[in-house]
Design a protein that fits this description.
Layout (H helix, E strand, L loop, with lengths): L7 H29 L11 E7 L17 E7 L1 H15 L20 H20 L7 E5 L5 H16 L3 E5 H9 L5 H10 L2 E5 L8 H16 L4 E5 L3 H7 L1 H11 L3 E4 L3 H4 L5
Parallel strand pairs: 3-6, 3-7, 4-5, 5-6
Antiparallel strand pairs: 1-2
C-alpha cells in the first residue's frame, strides 16, 4: 500500500524516521562485529571498566543532588581480564615450573602429619595474610628450615602462587643448586640474573646451601641478600640447614637471613620417619 503524505513536513519526518532506524541498525551491527574482535568484550581490551560508585560524605552517607537524586562518581576499575593477564605475566617472570604452579595450600596434605608440619603450614598462611603490612619492615621474610621431605618447598611455592595471583606481587624462584649450575655454565647471564634477584618484589631461594657452598656461591648470595636486607625487600628461604648451620657457612649472611625472617621461621627437626612424607 502506498503511503500518503499531506505535505512536505510529513515527507521529511518519514525520511528522518527511516534514517534513524537505519543508523541504529548499523550501530548494532558494528557493535556485534566489534565485540567479536575483542579478547574481552567486557572492557574491549582496555583493561578497565567504568563503574558508578556512591559519592559519600564524611559520615559515610550518600550525597544527593538538589532534586534529591543520589550522587555517583564515575570510577575506573581494573577489569578481571587485566588481572589475569598481569598474573600470567608475573608467573612467566617468576620461573616457577608448570608442575610447581599446581602447588596450593588446599592440596597440601596435613592429615596425620607431625605438629611441626602443621606449624610450618600455619606460618606460611600467616605470612600471606600479613604480607601487605610487613613487606617494607625489617622483619618481612619467611624461612622454613630442616628436614627434607617435610613440605617446605610446597608451602613456599603455594605462598608464591598466592602472592602472584591474588596480590599481583612479583616473585622470582631460584633453586639454589640448579640455579648456580646454570649460571656457572653461562657467565654472560650472571649479572642479569643477579639484578633480577635483587630487584624482584619477593625472592624465593629454594634449598639454600643444599650441597654446601663454594666461595663463589657465598659471595653471590651475600651480594643479593645484603642488597635486599639494606632495601627491606622480602625473601623466602627453604633449606635443610638450621640457623646455626647457616651462620657456620657465613655468619654475616646467616644472621641477615635470621633477622629478616625471625618472626616467620619454623625449624623442622626430629624423627625423619614422622617428618619426611617420602618415608610415610
Amino acid at each position: 500500500m502506498t503511503k500518503r503524505f499531506s505535505g512536505i513536513q510529513d515527507v521529511l519526518a518519514d525520511l528522518q524516521k527511516k534514517a534513524a532506524i537505519q543508523l541504529q541498525a548499523a550501530k548494532s551491527a558494528d557493535s556485534g562485529r566489534e565485540s567479536q574482535n575483542y579478547n574481552c568484550p567486557n572492557c574491549r581490551d582496555k583493561g578497565f571498566v567504568i563503574k558508578n560508585i556512591p559519592d559519600l560524605d564524611e559520615n559515610g552517607n550518600q550525597k544527593t543532588w538538589p532534586n534529591g537524586l543520589p550522587k555517583f562518581i564515575e570510577t575506573l576499575i581494573d577489569c578481571e581480564c587485566y588481572r589475569k593477564r598481569q598474573s600470567a605475566h608475573l608467573m612467566k617472570f617468576s620461573e616457577i615450573t608448570e608442575e610447581f604452579q599446581k602447588m596450593t595450600f588446599s592440596n597440601f596434605i596435613l592429615e596425620g602429619k607431625h605438629e611441626l608440619i602443621h606449624e610450618a603450614y600455619q606460618c606460611a598462611i600467616d605470612y600471606y595474610k600479613d604480607y601487605d603490612s610487613i613487606k617494607d619492615n625489617r622483619c618481612n621474610s619467611i624461612c622454613l628450615l630442616g628436614q627434607p621431605g617435610s613440605g617446605k618447598t610446597h608451602l613456599l611455592t603455594a605462598l608464591s602462587n598466592n602472592l602472584i595471583h591474588k596480590k599481583q606481587v612479583s616473585v622470582l624462584y631460584f633453586p639454589f643448586v640448579e640455579g648456580f649450575n646454570d649460571l656457572k655454565n653461562d657467565f654472560d647471564r650472571l649479572e642479569e640474573k643477579l639484578t633480577k634477584m635483587k630487584r624482584v618484589d619477593v625472592l624465593f631461594i629454594d634449598d639454600l646451601f643444599k650441597t654446601g657452598a663454594t666461595k663463589f656461591e657465598i659471595q653471590q648470595m651475600y651480594a643479593v641478600i645484603n642488597h635486599r636486607y639494606l632495601n627491606h625487600k622480602p625473601i623466602m628461604v627453604s633449606s635443610e640447614l638450621n640457623v646455626d648451620m647457616l651462620c657456620d657457612i657465613d655468619e654475616a649472611l646467616g644472621t641477615r637471613i635470621y633477622q629478616m625472617s625471625k618472626d616467620y621461621t619454623v625449624v623442622l627437626e626430629g624423627d625423619r620417619k614422622l617428618l619426611n612424607y617420602r618415608l610415610a
